[in-house]
Structures are given as structure tokens and as C-alpha cells.
């Protein structure tokens, strides 16, 4: 299983491809937004967790 950072990097790389349709690009952008939001939530939870 890949971690969020790897997923985000992969999605960003896919967006650089010229061989994707508008529909595919929109789907990748949605997935990227979700992954970034999940990473932000995880980061916030990590900062708030008692150490």
C-alpha cells in the first residue's frame, strides 16, 4: 500500500500527461484534492496528538 505522499506524487505526474481526456483529468484532479485534504488532516492530527 502506498502512502499519501506517494499517491499525491503519482497523481501530479499523471496530470502532466497529454494523453488523458478531460474526464480523466477531472477525475485525477478530484482524487488529488482528496489526497491532499487527507494528508492535511493527518498532519493536523499528528500535531495535536500528545507526545
Automatic annotation (TrEMBL):
Write down the superkingdom of origin. Bacteria
**Designated name of the protein:** Uncharacterized protein
Name its species. Gluconacetobacter liquefaciens (Acetobacter liquefaciens)
Amino acid at each position: 500500500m502506498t502512502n499519501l505522499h506517494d499517491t499525491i506524487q503519482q497523481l501530479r505526474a499523471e496530470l502532466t500527461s497529454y494523453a488523458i481526456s478531460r474526464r480523466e483529468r477531472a477525475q485525477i484532479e478530484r482524487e488529488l484534492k482528496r489526497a491532499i485534504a487527507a494528508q492535511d488532516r493527518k498532519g493536523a492530527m499528528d500535531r495535536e496528538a500528545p507526545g
